[in-house]
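Need the bound structure for zinc ion, inputs here:
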Amino acid sequence: MRYAILSDIHSNLEALSAVLDHLASERIDRYLCLGDAVGYGADPEACLGRLRACRAVSVCGNHEWACLGKLDVRWLNEAARTAILWTRDRLGFSDLDVLRRWPLVATEEAVTLVHGSLSHPDRFEYLVDLAQAVDTAKACRTAYCVVGHTHVPVVFEYDCSTRQPARILSSAGELAEVRLAQPADGMRYVINPGSVGQPRDGDPRASFAILDTQAGTLTVRRVAYDIAGAQRKIREAGLPELLAHRLAVGR
Ligand code: ZN
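Answer from helper R.:
Posting the output first, comments after.
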């Protein structure tokens, strides 16, 4: 199976369109969306429409959870809170109904999807250190666990036989082409594809990944998109300036 892994689209239609255009020339069997499809950006309905059109398997992120009233918006920073309240007003019943049907954790053959980590999916923990990656690898019942939330691409490899982490890959060069061990070799992977719509690793281009379970490869790709167009829409919508500004710096 060849999976396109998209996370943290954040209502950025310009970024999502550039990614889907790029993927149109690839053989993709299944699109996976790791949550936070909405929030921050100005195009929530259109982004959900694009995900529907490619029949993406999606899980809820904290922004969907907040839109659905399942997370107290007071826990969010001011820009996120303003954007969530704006998004909630903007989405119609049918879009909210779609989000309500997204689970916190989903399994698609050999791949488990969750927004933050498997330790407590409803707490939306940022998976940033090795101990958390090991916990999620241990909790995972499939060979691959794909996570988002940090907006920073990274791959953790965990050796089930020695119960030790084997590799951490985080540089752009390492992530451009990762050779994966076959599941039969007892390796498990925690994979973050980075963020489509609001990258935070210093590279403002949209980030996503292609996982080929048959070939045993993972590639994290970056595509340039119309950042100025996405910024203009955020400003025209009256959303916080910070949300427009950060797209250009990728932080
Ligand atoms: Zn996010």
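Comments: Residues 104 and 121 are 6 Å apart (CA to CA). The pocket of zinc ion is lined by residues 8, 10, 36, 61, 149, 151 (CB under 6 Å).
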